[in-house]
User: Fold this.
Amino acid sequence: MQPDFTGKVALVTGGGSGIGRATAIAFASRGARVAVADIAAKGGQETVSAITKVGRDAFFVQADVAKAMDVEGMVCAVVERCGRLDFAVNNAGVGSPGGLTHEYTEADFDRILDINLKGVWLCMKYELDQMLVQGGGAIVNMASVVGLVGFPEDTAYAASKHGVVGLTRVAALEYASQGVRINCVCPGPVRTPIYDGQPDVEAQRAGTIPIGRFGDPKEVAEAIVWLCSSAASYVHGSALVLDGGFVAQ
Assistant:
């Protein structure tokens, strides 16, 4: 049985494509009013259109999650428009340029940590302000299997996602008694636009996954929606792995 989120408000960062878009659509399909946040207006508006054309409620908020002023403004815009914030999915992030640890530039390292880790912290900072005032909520952060195991030539990305797992666990302990549940998801390779035009890379990586394929964004979205639902009311501080068996090897 699908959860009924009628009357609830969900915020999804990085909602303009991939897992973020699938998650925004999944929340809307359960009746939630959805704020789609992204730095890219075109993708964000396309997600909103996909939701509203089937009679559901969504709106776009432009924000760079690495900037405190943008994040504060994003949360304020949601609350001003909807009056509350029940669910927050901190999904916005960037991939790695690749390279051995000593080959990374400081600029690349800083950019990845600013968006993938600091961005999640900034989002939680302002989301929690609102959730504590209203007496509860649920937050899901986007980590990765690379936040649980090492992966060569992914130095900054792995560091950022390990950080997201740790940040999630600490915050979950801090706010569990105040009605806010905080978890993260750790997907393996998922078929998103980052792999467009790279069939060889996808085929190679799929060969390392026990079930032999990449995940679909909708599969991750369903797990995120479940974590926000009352069915997951006893789940706190979890790093939910969605990887086709990769880390079980």
